[in-house]
Amino acid sequence: MAVSDPNTDRVWEEFHTSVNMTGEELRRWLLTDASGEDALPASGGVDAEGEQIVRLLNKRRTDVTSSDLELMERVSGFVREELSDPRPEDDAWRRRLMRVGHDPLGPGSEPIDL
């Protein structure tokens, strides 16, 4: 049995708490026009960071790399920062969060006090 790294465990848990969309849900969102023009590059694929997040959502904890951990920390920090000052009347706010896999209106999202 492999020994678990406490830092990896912490980052993994924070990331999977911050990201409440599945990899497939995120991929579909990134491919829609509703996610905004930045999410759909001219090549027709999803943006590079979005694709990395989709891949991360499909990885096992034991397979994450140090660059995965950095991205996971960045995503968790971004979601935390955006939710600390929510603007629910601003549709762009929701799209920014959804581009990294957090739907503020989806299951598992913290309630937003208006």
Automatic annotation (TrEMBL):
Residues 81-114 are annotated as: Disordered. Pfam families: DUF3140. Residues 81-94 have a biased composition (Basic and acidic residues). This is DUF3140 domain-containing protein. It comes from Nocardiopsis metallicus.
